[in-house]
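Homework help board

Subject: predicted structure for assignment chain

Our instructor gave us this sequence and asked us to write out the predicted structure in token form, then describe one feature. I got the tokens but I'm not sure how to describe them. Can anyone check?
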Amino acid sequence: MKGITLHKYRTHTCSEITKKNSGKIVKLSGWIHRKRDHGNLLFFDLRDHFGLTQCVIENSSQFFKIAEKIKPESVVTVSGEVVKRSSDTINKDLSTGEVEIKVSSFEILSESNDLPMPVFGEQDYPEETRLKYRFLDLRRQEMHENIELRSKVISFVRKKMIDNGFLEFQTPILTASSPEGARDFLVPSRTHPGKFYALPQAPQQFKQMVMIAGFDKYFQIAPCFRDEDGRADRSPGEHYQLDMEMSFVEQEDVFKIVEPIFFDLFNKFGKGKNISKPPFKKITYSNSMLKYGTDKPDLRNPIEIFDVTEIFKRDDVKLDIFKKVIQKGGIVRAIPAPNTSTKPRSFFDGYNNWSKDEGGKGLGYIILEKNDGKLIGKGPIGKSFSDKAITELAKLCKLKEKDSIFFSSDKIKEAERISGLARQKLGKELDLIDNNKFEFCWITDYPMYQYDETEKRIDFSHNPFSMPQVNIKDFDKADPLSILAYQYDLVCNGYELSSGAIRNHLPELMYKVFSKVGYSKQEVNSKFEGMIKALSFGAPPHGGMAPGIDRIVMLLAEKTNIREVTLFPMNQNAQDLLMGAPSTASEKQLKELNIKIVEKKK
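My token output:
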């Protein structure tokens, strides 16, 4: 046909046609997005990856009946003249909205069955349906844009890393089991009966050996596999991270490299929101747990938590139930609720009941009002405080008239947890959170060890390969629970985006670190043979981190569920509904792997 190039499927994409093309013959290919039958005219939007173009077929056309019957999401090729739309039919939301294609040729490339879910519009369909038909779900504009954003973020980050002198390497996928904190996915070996590979929870040991091998800066967009339960911000099974490591660095050197990358990344893809400028705020782990009740604080929320245990010990505070908790080693944390004095009783009782539903003991509260120029406490326990105690409480917690304050009293971990959740809940319900910000911070100085209440023993609290903040000469006599590590997390808007650390590069110190959790030298040599061997041949001081790609894209796309930015995710039960995984293996496969399935007794 005159005016059309010889390309079989298209001369233009569905986003390229404008009024500049008026009068020209074009060829487009794509999916039938939606149809509108006006009797003598049939309009349909043709969609490809790039956009939409409106097409029109007159009822006198030989293709009218074919187009009338074809189902949405069928794939077609059309040819026709580009014509301007009348002024009253222009669609200003589309780049192609001033024109339409008067169809003169219509070819069906692939017909669609009846759809289990629509592609046109953004209807809220059940996640099970969306995951089972993910290829259709991904055609929806919102999902399409999320996945395209993911690709652009990865490309941007990769370029930034290369520009900063990092080399990209790929580390093994089939490796040995390592204590990273979650369950391994095991892969049976056919050639070594009874033995198993493990999929890497992270490339931790390999990236350290890259530094020991003499490379200065390494990175990769690494797949990581962890057999753990899914959450809204964590995929079950697998995730991707920007894995990086650097030689001859201290903690501050890592921060100085990473901060500009994140600032530029969020500045480019953050839709004009305000972004923390480097250097990012640094908060110690202990201060974060005190002020925010979590090591993932959302700094957009202005509420800070205060320890008021000493005030509740006073004789002029008559609250025996709190005092008994304190006598048993518990604490009292205070969570301010600004400008809530006029809230109904149901508001305060609601928080008390909510705390119990969350597994806490409930929340006491007082409301601050002025009487004869001085602050007084109102509410069920308000009269239990003397005027002096109220004054000191208000000063410590930066309270004013018309504020309220909630109290969580329990063992320290539980009081921190409930107060942190209450802070988040208050911030959202009182509309205190500025959604036009990306607030970054570093959480530093994590404890090297923690006491496992279930196992009744000391265990690692973070990464066992981190450098402790104790000289090797003083390590043996140090209380394990007092030892801090050069470990750090990068947090944004309440999400942990990355964990990292300066690594322990000294074999003798590694033995000492593991001895605190009960490992003998022989056990360390056995479990970490490759790492100990590598460290014994001259290892540079080194450190790094591993930001999660999925969470970064989730934040930038303004989503709260990580499956919204993952191409083919599993559901929360770690099932791939599209491909039917996990599935059973055949007897032949099991025999080859020397595996026998033992049925669980009912």
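Reply (TA_rk): Your tokens look well-formed. For the description, you could write something like this. The chain has 17 helices and 24 strands. That's the kind of observation they're looking for.
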